[in-house]
Specification:
- With 515 residues, the chain is of the alpha+beta class.
- Among the domains are: 99 residues, no CATH class; 136 residues, Bacterial polysaccharide co-polymerase-like (2-Layer Sandwich), CATH 3.30.1890; 124 residues, Helix Hairpins (Orthogonal Bundle).
- Helix 5 crosses helix 9, helix 11 packs antiparallel against helix 14 and helix 13 runs antiparallel to helix 14.
């Protein structure tokens, strides 16, 4: 309703008939003032419902805190990690006793393979079962007593849980391997004491298991047997060699060979000289026979005595016979030859005695030379035959010596081979005994750098404070939300903006309520 004469300056409607543009302009101004007052409207809503907000906040906070405490006490499962670090080195276990006598090469060190083998031993099912049987499944996993696994015994269920909660890996620092020879054994459990006990038991059983794996008592027995076997063979071969030396009575084969070769050289020289003498004597005899055939047998001169030279020759031959009998046997060809010459000279003297016809001295001298050369030829032939026989015997002796030396070398090689094998097996046996003693003393190449200590802080900290903070924030948000929902659901419109939104009409006038 408007008045023409006295327009109201506080009204949004002009007193006279204003244009439609002026009306729209004033409506836009009202809307802009309403947008500026939104924050004030929100605060007014909070202030208006402050009691409900506070009550709802306190109630929801109490419920949330109680829920957080209940979850923490009855449903939250803290996890503790017990950790042990093992240092794995390349040690005596990697040098297994060599049962053969072949020359072995130093094994190449592959730390990754060694570390992988040790991890496989730590993760073996047998070690896990030993730990479970030692500590009992109900001790390691108390939840099995309350909620056992369907279709599995406690030991089998404990093994399944054990494999899930055990971690064996090379030591790491961040995302990279911290050390190439350190292994971390980690067990994640709900109780710190149980987790530490599990890790320490596993490490102890692991060291015992390594001893069982690397220990080989059969190798010691085998090497003892082989060493005793070759000790007996060595003694037998030494006895054979000693009996052979006693039988042959040869101290040094080299010296004996030198002596025999020298004797053969002398015999060769003697044969050569005898052959030359025989040839020379035969030529002389032939020449003398030619001369003798051209000389007269007798002579008129009676001055010479033809039997004197023969007697002197006979005397020389008898003296030579005595010398030969002292050196050689009766049946030696030299002795027989001399005796034949003595008989020839005696026969000649007998004929001379019967026939005292004078002989030509020159004829007689040639005849003497012929007899002397024949005697010398006969002696040379005997000497040649004897030297030839001795040479044959000496060659046979040298050949026999070579055979004996070959047998001596064979026996010596047998002694050396048995001695080498005996000492080789003795050395292998000492190594095996040393390794066995090191294993018995539990001196391994694995060192426990850090035994598992009882963890103090869980890996998932107790979330009570965070849960309470979340509960308080949720309670505050819920209480505010409830206040705004109630405000929306009210039928009363308290602001111009709210009226415009609900009625979809512009507000022309606002009248404040006076208190």
């Amino acid at each position: 309703m408007t008045r023409q004469d006295s327009p109201n300056q506080n009204s949004l409607v002009p007193s006279d008939s204003a244009s439609h543009a002026v009306l729209l302009e004033r409506m836009l101004l009202v809307r802009e003032s309403g947008a500026k007052n939104n924050l004030r409207d929100y605060l007014s809503i909070i202030f208006r419902h402050k009691t409900n907000i506070i009550v709802t906040f306190l109630l929801l906070s109490a419920i949330g805190c109680a829920t957080a405490v209940a979850y923490k006490e009855w449903f939250f499962d803290p996890r503790f990690e017990a950790r042990s670090s093992l240092l794995v080195k390349f040690g005596w276990e990697n040098f297994s006793p060599d049962l053969s006598l072949e020359k072995r090469q130093t094994p190449s060190v592959n730390q990754a393979e060694i570390l992988g083998s040790e991890i496989r031993i730590l993760e073996s099912r047998e070690l896990k079962e030993r730990v479970i049987n030692s500590l009992k499944p109900d001790y390691i996993f108390p939840q099995l007593a309350k909620t056992p696994y369907q279709g599995l015994s406690n030991n089998e269920a404990a093994l399944v849980l054990f494999e899930k909660q055990l971690s064996v890996n090379p030591a790491r620092r961040g995302n990279s391997v911290a050390s190439a020879n350190v292994i971390d054994v980690v067990f994640n459990g709900s109780d710190p004491d149980r987790a530490a006990a599990v890790v320490n038991h596993l490490v102890n059983y692991y060291i015992d298991k390594r001893s069982e794996i690397y220990r080989d008592p059969k190798s010691v027995l085998f090497l003892e047997k082989k060493a005793d076997e070759y000790r007996q063979k060595l003694a037998e071969s030494e006895d054979k060699l000693k009996a052979f030396h006693d039988e042959t009575k040869i101290i040094s084969f080299d010296e004996q060979r030198s002596i025999l070769l020298k004797q053969r050289a002398d015999l060769d020289a003697a044969l050569y000289n005898a052959a030359g003498g025989i040839k020379e004597a035969q030529e002389k005899i032939t020449e003398l026979d030619k001369q003798l055939s051209g000389l007269p047998k007798t002579t008129i001169s009676q001055n010479s005595d033809p039997t004197r030279d023969a007697q002197m020759r006979l005397l020389n031959l008898e003296l030579q016979e005595k010398e030969l009998v002292l050196k050689y046997k009766e049946d030696t060809p030299l002795v027989v030859n001399v005796r034949e010459q003595i008989a020839m000279v005696k026969k000649y003297l007998e004929k001379k005695t019967e026939n005292m016809a004078p002989v030509d001295p020159l004829y007689q001298d040639v005849q003497k030379q012929i007899l002397a050369n024949k005697a010398e030829l006969s002696a040379l032939k005997v000497r040649y035959t004897d030297a030839e026989k001795q040479l044959v015997e000496l060659n046979a002796e040298i050949q026999s010596l070579e055979g004996l030396e070959s047998k001596n070398k064979e026996l010596g090689r047998e002694v050396s081979a048995n001695e080498e094998k005996y000492h080789g097996y003795r050395q292998r046996l000492e190594e095996a005994k040393l390794y066995d003693e090191l294993d018995r003393q539990k001196m391994t190449s694995v060192s426990v750098l850090e035994p598992a200590e009882v963890p103090i802080v869980s890996v998932n900290p107790r979330p009570l404070a965070s849960l309470i903070a979340i509960a308080l924030a949720a309670a505050l948000g819920a209480s505010l939300g409830i206040a705004f929902v109630r405000e929306i659901c009210r039928q009363v419109m308290s602001t111009a903006m709210e009226a415009e939104k609900r009625l979809d009409l512009p507000v022309l006038v606002t009248i404040p309520i006076k208190q």
